[in-house]
Amino acid sequence: MSASLYGSTAAQFVRGLKNLSALLEKGAAWAKENGKSEEEVLNTRLADDMYPLARQVQITSDMSKGAIARLSGVAAPAMEDNEVTFAQLQERIAKTLRFIESVDVAKLEGDESREIVVKGKNHELKFTAHSYVTTFAVPNFYFHVTTAYNILRHLGVNIGKFDFIGQV
């Protein structure tokens, strides 16, 4: 039995985005309690060649809304990637959640072998719907959620495994 495209994407993205929102709440509270500016926290990165926290959140949003849009044939909302505060990132997550939750579940189901094309600046990636979900969209989503978690944890925010996983 194969997993549904909805269960493999939208359901996981909603849960992951809600958990990311809760992580950011704890990060914002930690920053305030420790006299750190939002700018300092949101610009923290784990390594020089990695994106900072704010960009990790933006990419998490982009990966999830882009996947749902490609799989459902519904246009994703445009977002400018200009968030510089915790509140702005929370609004971006909320907007992403509203979009994902607005898409009819039936639009996400169907032919798992249909072609999905992801266009980059200088390249084009082609997948089946199934391989797009399992080898690109979901792994990228979790990579960026995990990296956001790790940045906060590295800073000293009191978060753990169950903050990442969420309510079980």
From TrEMBL:
Task: Fetch the InterPro entries from UniProt.
Answer: DinB/YfiT-like, DUF1993
Q: What is this protein called?
A: DUF1993 domain-containing protein
